[in-house]
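Researcher: Let's try something more involved. This one mixes different molecule types, so please make sure each is placed in the same coordinate frame as the others.
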Amino acid sequence: VADDAAFRAFVEANGATLLHAARLLTGDHHRGEDLVQTALTRVYLKWDRIDTPLAYARKALVTAHIDSTRRKWWGERPTETLPEVSATESSDVGAADERDELRRLLAGLNAKERAVVVLRYYCDLSEQEAAATLGVPVGTVKSTCSRALSRLRVEIGVGS
Amino acid sequence: MSPSESQLRAALQDGEGDAPDATALISHALQVRRDRRNRITSIAGGVAVVAVLGVGTTALVSLGTDSGSSGGSSADSARGFQSAQKAAGAASAPSAERRSAAASPARPSKTAAASTGGTIDALKCPTTPARYMLPGGGGSGQFGSGNPLFPDAVAAIKACGYSTSPGARPQAHVYQSPESSAIATALESAPTTHTSRMCADNTYARGTIEILAVDSRGRALKPVVITLNCQASQATNGTAVRYVNAVPDQLLELVH
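Model: All components are placed in one shared frame. Result:
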């Protein structure tokens, strides 16, 4: 049986960050909640066997997200209009500042690029830590991050 | 606009909310664990049921073969022999009495006779007699033909008679010592080479007799099959061959 009190303390301390990271990864509020629930469930079930719960939770989050995008029969599907941009939100975007636009454009990246950007610039992980979390070489993190930022710049350039 | 790292960080960190409900997470995790265990248990149960069904079916098929309820063949007889070996092995559990019986096989004691009696009863006549493929077609002087039909001293015999008459059913009879020894000696002492002789008896028995024998320790010996022929009946255990001119009368009665 997992140490419930310790797990509660962990969720209190890191739950908000993980939930926000999940929302950024999925680009959707509800799917982000589902994703963080999946990741934290895995953390709880292995609580007695993991040394660094936060690193494990981040890895579970990213893995579950990338895994879900691979399952095309129920996962993400490319659409003309991004689902999280509703009519009201679009009108808000017109008047919104650069932050909103950046987050909207983030949803246009593919799953791995989004994961690298979130881990590097939201979770403040180093390239080595991001590589370890994603299970890829550091060089892959560097190239993926560079490509993602280039795409964001291009999108912003086109938008402006 | 070109996003700097600080702009990107600020944009990403904007809108952080509250932490998820830990209690709900724990109850969900426990439910996931229960579901996973139930799934594993049901899979393991299914595997166990299939295994039990497989073993049960195999045992039933094996029992059916032993009791002669299924179609016969030489493989059928071989399976019966193996089952008999197992039965004999089970019956010959080590004990002081069995050891004393084994020490003097030539003169089996009453206890040993009772033991072999129990073992010989466990031997079942196969649906059809064993069919041996003899080297050289069973001709005289083949390799190993002079070997003994019964490698060990015979303590008891179950003779199974198969008549060629239409509709005839196999007949079985058990012979204990000394009658069993006399039968074994009569077969063993027959010539190892075929000698033609005139056959004037048109009513001579036709058919096959399978001899299931056990030694003094209750071990089943390899079955000996006698193919009756008026000129010279052939007795063989698959290697050794005897051409029996005078098959013991008590055996002939089984196929009449």
